[in-house]
Amino acid sequence: MRLFEPKEVEVSIEVIYEDIPIEGNVMSSGDGKADLQAEKEVLKDLESGNVFAWCTAVVQASWAGFERRDTLGAISCRNEDEFRSLVMDHGMIEQAVGYLIRKIRVHGWPIDVPKRAESIVAERFQHAEIEMR
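Above: the chain sequence. Below: its structure as tokens.
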């Protein structure tokens, strides 16, 4: 049995331009005017070069040749700090590591996973550089 060492797990965090249309997908408040205004603000932010204004977050965890991802799309953030907070608040690193552990086990690898492995990895990578695609 091999020990799943959280310190051996690699994590990448990516921001990818969202290709889902902005129109009708930013907000659904029931107030058409407010929804339209929110869409205009997102478009304005995109035009000013804010890559986080309309994007998808992708967190990938890898270990011993295995990898898994967690994604969250159609998100709008004012800046990198808000994007990073969203990734952390949604537990995306923990989710990606959890998916990774399940994939390893499904492939028949006997691994011993320490308690809190997912959160240990998340703590290590909470300030990781965000890659832009």
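The helical segments are 32-47, 80-89, 92-106, 117-125.
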